[in-house]
Amino acid sequence: MNRMRLRIAERLKQSQNTAASLTTFQKVDMSQMIDFRKQYKDDVLKRTGVKLGFMSAFSRAAILAMRDVPAVNASIEGAGGGDTIVYRDYVDISVAVATEKGLVTPVVRNAESLDMIGIDKEIAALGKKARDNKLTIEDMAGGTFTISNGGVFGSLFGTPIINLPQTAVLGLHAIVEEPTAVNGKVEIRPVSAGCAYNIGALLKLVQIMYLALTYDHRILDGREAVTFLVKIKEYIQDPRRMLL
Known about the structure:
This protein is of the alpha+beta class and 244 residues long. 36% of the residues lie in helices and 23% in strands.
């Protein structure tokens, strides 16, 4: 094992041994967010050179949800395993990036002061540094909350592991089409005469992503964790709410 792999192994085992880890899940309709990105991505790229992605949207949604559930952005500190809860008025988001040598988590500093374009710009810069093996210790130190996107590799479900001393980590997964009930019913679409049977023609197919929030139950109760994840869902399903 190289030094990075050894350090990753040490930190992950420390997290498993220390935190009272529990994971809660949510299913999110991505249709509005996909339309939002499709509508503005070309203009944003032309004006700023930034590719508008989903990580910035989930980062912004998490930051707004933390206003109602501040414990998500807190940590347990102190001697003897910790006896003090430290709350923060800033959000440093650790973004999980896969490299050839292993998983690294560079930090977007003061993400609460950035808009979605600013967050995407920082994520792109950190991702490039990671791929070029130019990340420093300072780039990866001090995060308060982590977002991991296994969906880029095709993951449908997963339980991410907490990056101590943080309290929670949000796992994003692949976007898949599912026939879904809308307003209490499955919507039927007309099928052309002579058309082959096609479930996509009969049912309303919705772009779905499954979210996972692993949290430290020592500091965060189930009600708070579920409330936090539901608020993220609400922001993503109606991106305009993030502008209010």
